Request: fold
Amino acid sequence: MGLDVERIEILLLVAAVVAMLVRRLRLPYTVGLVLAGIALAFSPLGHQVRLTQELIFGAFLPPLIFEAAFNISWPELRRDLGVVLTLVTLGVLLAAALTAAGLHFLVGWGWSAAWLFGALIAATDPVAVIATFREVGIQGRLRLLLEAESLFNDGTAAVAFGVLLALAQGGGMSAGEVAGKFAVTVLGGLLCGAAVGGSVLLLAGRTDDHLLETTFTTIAAYGAFLLAEHFHLSGILATLTTGLILGNWGSLGTLTDKGHETIDSFWEYAAFLANSLIFLLIGMGLTSESFTPGKIPSLLAAIVLVTVSRALVVYLCCALFGRSAWRVPLRYQHVLFWGGLRGAVALALALGLPPQTPQRATILTAAFTVVAFSVIVQGLTIKPLLRRLGELPPQQRP
Reply:
């Protein structure tokens, strides 16, 4: 069963109470929501609501991606674009390959299942990453690197996953055709986002009503995503592009000052709602998976392989810039590694696997396991790591 007004009201009440409790206990909000979701799974509501791919992609992801992109400064992003693009292309492909190879050779998974899981779990999730970093108040280059990487590599991982899924279903393609499909999906998504963002800027520039300006941004966030997905392009990259355009060029006079202030407040709240519902539903979904004793070695191996692959990717990719102006300090690399959380997007891709996919149940259980480890274990320890590295803002220090 899906979400209706009554169920949303209950979940939001739980989210609000959890937010109050975790602030008193000084725990990450996302961790509190997942734990609350696990508890809710044993209530009557747990049998009425399920996390689905359609719910994540159709309802939650567009506002979260748009809000994050809207607040990214293009001049700051441009200064680190080389690092970000390396992490979201070479990094994603390398992480997927390392994870897949480990699952095949060490655990015995078939190549098809191993590659699909490697692709869907390779990217860090903007939903989990951005929520965690905002809680601890991280600013500056470190936050930009982690947020920008998580936003862009979510799109590249989703595209790579789609190509691999088509291959797994018998769509024989040459290496050139695979590369062509990947390029078309990525570039097409970027162009859709640019077209929607540019159109909305023209419309918003013809009014000084802050409510209409906010409405146009809502249309842009969902419209870019739906337009790209309609043409089988990357909806994530389309919404990301639209958010960057409106957030950076809208502030140059197209949007009024009051409109920009209203838009900021509106999307901050929309992101809070989407985050709250996503992490509650992730917790509720964990109990629906069959974590039998026989699966434990395979699941533990998946956690280790994903974690080790992330470490290798971060340190190797950053080493490429060690002698350049884009050099990433070692302490930043540690945070990029451990702060690379997984979340809703990986689950959405896993939930969307066709029933006939080889080892579908195993992939889904492994995805939930890695996401739970990421959100709970890494989410609980990222703040102590930041404190040890001296990266916490003054108000967060004891």
